[in-house]
Amino acid sequence: MEIRLDELARIVGGEISGDPSVVITGVAGIREARPGDITFLADPRYGRYLESTAASAVIAPRDTARTSKPLIICENPYLSFIKAVEYFFPDRNSYPRSVHHSAIVADSARIGKGVAIGACTIIEEDVEIGDNSLVLAGTFVGRRTSIGSNCLIYPNVTIREETRIGNRVIIHSGAVIGSDGFGFVRDGEIYRKIPQVGNVVIEDDVEVGANVTIDRATTGTTYIGRGTKIDNLVQIGHNVVVRDNCIIVAQVGIGGSTEIGAGATIAGQAGIIGHVKIGEGSVVAAQAGVVGDVAPGAMVSGYPARNHKQAKKIYASLQKLPDLLKRVAELAERVARLERGRRS
Q: Contact at 8 Å (CB) between 34 and 54?
């Protein structure tokens, strides 16, 4: 597949700077691109590669420095690059729209038009799958679950009973939706399991990464709001509420009954105890340990998590600790010598 640069600019929504007749045959990152590829520049840190990249053209922001490379200038280079990728890979998720002969589909299941159900998939009783959704090989969908239209469920996903999934949801391999929440009560010397009888609701346009676990509610609902994106290896406990358009990065753990406000970002390896509120638009930095509520719009870091500016001052002070300890020891020795001198 090939396309002239000016034609591609119309598709991705940008303006040409340089030769519009350059022929583009593929897409690639700025460091690994080859002649014929188009790449993009969204992070100023990669500006040093602008002249050295082998790419034939670059999608770039308006404030890009002068260069000999042909450019497509646009407001959002990352978004425009996504459009270019979609142009060159239109059939990336093309699968036969049929039920594989090895799949087990209950008679009571309601399957929409244009649905693909892969090999060895199990669809239990009273499941509903909307039009044009893909449920790929080895996936299990429990009874009374509903999956909306235009969803993509990758191989080997487990979706437990009574889960409700909206439209255009993507769930990657190994994810487990609706596993039992971690609930036990002490009875003498043993722990007795608390029945987990709630469900999970995932709204429209959510993406769930590989090996994510979202526990069902003890009672009620564990809720993932519209447009939220969840990275790989995230644990979301029972009765957690994640509002719309949140970002949850890899290896985050969220304790039960916590509420994450709309537009919040939880960075990699952060841990959040149960029964707290993370405010709308707030940021929990990487590896933070949250033990209390976070105000809307705040940024917290460290353990225990505190205001990010305060945390940075504390970390800076800790770097000086060895020298401070040495200085204190020297001062203690001087005081001791002075006291010995007075006694003599």
A: yes
Those residues with Cβ within 8 angstroms of residue 336's Cβ, 6 or more apart along the chain or in another chain: none
The predicted-structure confidence for 211-262, as pLDDT tens digits, reads as follows 999 999 999 999 999 999 999 999 999 999 999 999 999 999 999 999 999 9
**Secondary element (H or E) of residue 314:** helix 308-319
Structure-token pair, residue 30: 């700025």
d(CA 73, CA 171): 34
Residue pair 277/295 in contact by the 8 Å Cβ criterion: no
Q: Which CATH class is domain 3-88?
A: alpha beta
Closest CA to 210 of 253, 246, 171, 242: 171
Question: Choosing from 101, 238, 275, 308, which is the catalytic residue?
Answer: 238
Our answer to whether residue 238 is catalytic in this structure is: yes
- How far apart are the C-alpha atoms of 310 and 271, rounded to whole Å? 19
For 9, the token pair is 């600019």
CATH of 104-308, one of 3.50.50.60, 3.40.50.740, 2.40.128.20, 2.160.10.10: 2.160.10.10
